[in-house]
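Hi V.,

You were right to ask for the full record rather than a summary. Here it is.
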Amino acid sequence: MTSNTLTTLRIGLFGLTGIVCLAYATLALLYATPAPFSAWIPGAFGISSGVILAITSRMAPAKAASMTWDEGYAADASRAASRAFWIAIFQYPVFGVLMALGLATPSVSFAAMGTLTAAAYLLMAAWFDMQGRA
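Predicted structure:
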């Protein structure tokens, strides 16, 4: 297994998990329910992605794993985390307004905000990773 394969796997798993989280949040808001589909699915995708990445990184040659999780990844992850932090912060006034207007209940807002925060990080990390490969 090469570092390119591991990086592609990381991008794919981060992207897929981010899409699941984004879908959960979007459907929660559209259907006005805190559980638009089984609430364990976003977490299960996240845990499964982490396990798959850990196992494949352990199975890969040390040099390939080192190249996959190098300072370039750390820089991209840091950039994604800093932007996701601000997205999470700005969600509070947005959802506060939605709740004040009666457009969202606290339980729906809580479900949407939690999964949107995860989606923001995962999708940006995948996006920045893809930009680095272009």
